[in-house]
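Hi, here's the filled form for the chain we discussed.

Project: internal
Contact: R.S.
Residues: 318
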Amino acid sequence: MTNNQSPNPQPLTPTPLLLAFMEPKIKFGYLGVPYDAATSIANPGARFAPSALREQFKLLLSKRVVDGQVVDMDRGEIVDLRAVEVADFGDVALSFYDHHKAIDQVTAATREIIDAGYVPLVVGGDHGVTYPAFRALHDATRGNLGLIQLDAHCDMLDFSEKQGAISGSSGMARSLELGRLAGKNMVQVGLRGYATTQQWGVGVKYGVKRILAPEFEEMGAVEAAKQSLDWARDGTEKIYLTVDIDALNPGEAPGTGWAEPGGLTVQQLIDFVRYVAPHVDALDLAELNPVFDSAPKQTTVMCARLLFDFVTVKARAS
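And the returned structure, exactly as it came back:
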């Protein structure tokens, strides 16, 4: 697999989603990755997620933030966003015919956002988005990194004849190969159902930490978040968070490509993300699939809420 980063065909040009009233203390960059060309075992359609989520996120920001302030009703507090900037960097220009080239393009675009001083909000696409986006943070960081993965599935596929070595099922395995993500600093949260011995075994080989869905239910969201952070930041400089929407119970979040029975509730996911957000340096959302969402777009609306939670909690902590 190539490690050469092909430059994005054109420099990314951000457009404002939320303008700062003063010199911003923290900046967020929305980046769409409309890619599910490697999806071979799940329902395609995640390529439509960046556009659908962008519209819901813009709507939420425009309707709720007034004069740079918004009320966080979960905490009964006014959040001051006047020194916060949220920019839309558009969608990555992708070469859909070549998985390796597409990976390099996503890495280059994410790195451009990081180098410009923004916290990346990377929206897939299938879960193959994590490896190139995480690689950008990895390449921009000198020290070791932690990775927290909310997901029903391991995504530890090494290789298969059907999916090869690059797919939405292999992102975590490829990320572990980069060198400065140790297994002890990767945390997989919400795993459930059944997996191949290969997918399970790769995580065991690397010493990956896991909080399975039944364990999560017993611990509660906040305790699971505390444990995940303890593992992810043990000797690390930065933390990457990836949220696969199929971590959720499909009854609450039908808009995904692989509806795995059981899973986290939306409130548990929100509570978890809000707890870890102050310590996270880059975020991706994967496997939102508008094609299978409900008529009221409940999964897409939930994802917009999750992005807004991430922004407000980090803004409060900055």
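Let me know if anything looks off before we file it.
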